[in-house]
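pls design
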C-alpha cells in the first residue's frame, strides 16, 4: 500500500523484478485486445485484456513503470504509461487515449522520441496532471526501486463501496490486503482461528495472503511472493488431509484413451484433519497448468452432513479455463469431470464416514430400527396389526412354496433331457465387478483387470471365475436332486395350518384366494 502525495488517498502497488517491457511491448500491454499469444491456447495473456480489466476492477486509474534490456532495442530502456478512467471521463474523450513516454540509456538516461517532441511533452504533461506525481523528477524517482529491470504498477483512485469505504481493506491485517463486503464473514474468521487445518477454506475469499498461498500447485525455488513486506508461504492443501487416497481419472476421447500425460488427472482425496469436529467444509481444489482455477469446488450439493469434511486436489490440463481464470468453460469434458468427482466423493464417504463419527446410510437405517423399538413412545398398540402379521406369513409361505416347486420343475426338465441336449452355461461369480457403460475409467491404487482380461482366461471348475457343468456328470447330479426333492415331504405352515405339499399348483391357488380375502377384510 502506498499513499498519494497529492490528496493523501491510498494506492495499491504491484511490482516484479522480471524482464520488464520494451516500449513496443508496453504499448501492446496497455492497448485493448492486442495479444502476441492469441494463437497459443492455455497461456496467460491469450486474450490481451487481462491487465486492463483487472486493474480497472480495482481502481479508476493505473500508472505503469517498466525498465527492460531487450534484444530488439539493444540498450536499456524505460517507459511510463497511464490508463486513466478519470482523465477520459473528465475530458470527454470518445477514444481511449493512453499517454506514454520513453527513455533510453546511453552514457546517461535521455528522452526517446518516437514521433515528435511536441507529442512527447504533451504526454508528459497529461501524466503529471492526472497522476499522483507533480513533476518529471518524481516520476523518474520511481525507477530507483526497480534496479536493472522489472515493472512497477500503481493503481490509484481505488473503488469504494456503498458506505464510502474502500473495497480493499488495508487495516484488518498489516501484512495482508483483504476485501470488504459479502466475501468477508466474521463467523468464518472465527472458525479459521478455531480450526487451523481448515483455515484456507474459511479465508481464501477475503484474504489475498490466504488465496495467494494456494494459488500455485508447485512453486520454483527461485520464485517468491511478498505481500506488504512479508513473504507469502505456499501452502499445500494435501498436508491438511488425513485418510488420504489417490485416484487416477483418465477421460475417454472419441478415438479411445489418450496417451498424452496431460489427459490424466491424479486426484488426492481425503478428510480434512478437522473433520472429526464436523466442520462445514468440502470441495476440490482444481488446478490448470499449475494455477488454481476453482478453489474448493463443491460437486456434491446435497443438503445435510453427507460429504462434509472431504476435500481434494487435482490438476486438469484437458479442460479449458474461462477468460478471467476464475472458472472453466462449460464443456462436456468439465461435465464428465464433475460427475466423476461426485462419484469419487460419494464412494469415499460411504467407505470412511464412520471413521470420523458419521453414520452411513446402512448405519442410519439400523439405528432407526433400534430407536423405534426402544423409544419411550413405542407400545404394542403401535406395533404391526394382526392383519399385517398374517400378510407377512402368507407372503413368506407363498415364496417358500414357489421356490420349492420351481426347483422341482427345473430338476425334472433337466432330467428329461438327453446328455447331448444339456449345454453348459457360463456362470459368473457375484464377485466379478460390474463396470458401467460410462467409458471413463477410474483407477484406485493398483490397476484393476478389465472384464475382457477376466473372460479371456481358461475355463475353470465351479470354484473359479467361470464354471461349466460337465455334461454327463451334470445330468446324473440333477437326476439325484430331482429324486430327493420328490421323495422329501416339505411341511409348510399356511395361515396356521400344516400340510404336505402334494400339488403345488393347488396350494398356490389357495394362497392367492386367501390373500384376496384378507385384502377385502
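designed seq:
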Amino acid at each position: 500500500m502506498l499513499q498519494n502525495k497529492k490528496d493523501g488517498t491510498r494506492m495499491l502497488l504491484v511490482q516484479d523484478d522480471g524482464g520488464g517491457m520494451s516500449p513496443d511491448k508496453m504499448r501492446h500491454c496497455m492497448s485493448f485486445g492486442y495479444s502476441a499469444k492469441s494463437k497459443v491456447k492455455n497461456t496467460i495473456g491469450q486474450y490481451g485484456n487481462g491487465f486492463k480489466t483487472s486493474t480497472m476492477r480495482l481502481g479508476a486509474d493505473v500508472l505503469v513503470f517498466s525498465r527492460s534490456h531487450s534484444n530488439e532495442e539493444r540498450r536499456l530502456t524505460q517507459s511510463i504509461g497511464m490508463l486513466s478512467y478519470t482523465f477520459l471521463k473528465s475530458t470527454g474523450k470518445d477514444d481511449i487515449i493512453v499517454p506514454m513516454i520513453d527513455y533510453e540509456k546511453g552514457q546517461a538516461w535521455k528522452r526517446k522520441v518516437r514521433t515528435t517532441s511536441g507529442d512527447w511533452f504533451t504526454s508528459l504533461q497529461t501524466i503529471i496532471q492526472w497522476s499522483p506525481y507533480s513533476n518529471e523528477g518524481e516520476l523518474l524517482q520511481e525507477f530507483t526501486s526497480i534496479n536493472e529491470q522489472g515493472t512497477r504498477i500503481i493503481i490509484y483512485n481505488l473503488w469504494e463501496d456503498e458506505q464510502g469505504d474502500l473495497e480493499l481493506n488495508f487495516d484488518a491485517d498489516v501484512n495482508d490486503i483483504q476485501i470488504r463486503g459479502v466475501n468477508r464473514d466474521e463467523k468464518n474468521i472465527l472458525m479459521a482461528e478455531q480450526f487451523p487445518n481448515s483455515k484456507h477454506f474459511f479465508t481464501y475469499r477475503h484474504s489475498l495472503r490466504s488465496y495467494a498461498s494456494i494459488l500455485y500447485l508447485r512453486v520454483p525455488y527461485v520464485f517468491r511472493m511478498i505481500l506488504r513486506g512479508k513473504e507469502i508461504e505456499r501452502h499445500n492443501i494435501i498436508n491438511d488431509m488425513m485418510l488420504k487416497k489417490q485416484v487416477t481419472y483418465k477421460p475417454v476421447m472419441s478415438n479411445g484413451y489418450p496417451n498424452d500425460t496431460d489427459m490424466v488427472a491424479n486426484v488426492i482425496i481425503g478428510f480434512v484433519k478437522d473433520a472429526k469436529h464436523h466442520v462445514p467444509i468440502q470441495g476440490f481444489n482444481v488446478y490448470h497448468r499449475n494455477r488454481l482455477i476453482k478453489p474448493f469446488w463443491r460437486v456434491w450439493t446435497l443438503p445435510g452432513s453427507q460429504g462434509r469434511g472431504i476435500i481434494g486436489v487435482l490438476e486438469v490440463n484437458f479442460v479449458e479455463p474461462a477468460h478471467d481464470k476464475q472458472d472453466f468453460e462449460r464443456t462436456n469434458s468439465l461435465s464428465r469431470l464433475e460427475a466423476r468427482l461426485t462419484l469419487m466423493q460419494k464412494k469415499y464417504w460411504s467407505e470412511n464416514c464412520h471413521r470420523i463419527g458419521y453414520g452411513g446410510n446402512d448405519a442410519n437405517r439400523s439405528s432407526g430400527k433400534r430407536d423405534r423399538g426402544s423409544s419411550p413412545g413405542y407400545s404394542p398398540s403401535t406395533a404391526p396389526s394382526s392383519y399385517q402379521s398374517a400378510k407377512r406369513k402368507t407372503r413368506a409361505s407363498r415364496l417358500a412354496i414357489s421356490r420349492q416347486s420351481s426347483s422341482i420343475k427345473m430338476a425334472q426338465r433337466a432330467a428329461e433331457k438327453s446328455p447331448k441336449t444339456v449345454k453348459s452355461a457360463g456362470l459368473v461369480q457375484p464377485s466379478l465387478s460390474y463396470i458401467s457403460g460410462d467409458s471413463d475409467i477410474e483407477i484406485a491404487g493398483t490397476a484393476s483387470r478389465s472384464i475382457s482380461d477376466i473372460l479371456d482366461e481358461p475355463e475353470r471348475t465351479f470354484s473359479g471365475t467361470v464354471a461349466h457343468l460337465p455334461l454327463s456328470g451334470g445330468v446324473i447330479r440333477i437326476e439325484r436332486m430331482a429324486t430327493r426333492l420328490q421323495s422329501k415331504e416339505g411341511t409348510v405352515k399356511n395361515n396356521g395350518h400344516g400340510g404336505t405339499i402334494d400339488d403345488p399348483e393347488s396350494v398356490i391357488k389357495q394362497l392367492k384366494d386367501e390373500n384376496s380375502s384378507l385384502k377385502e377384510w
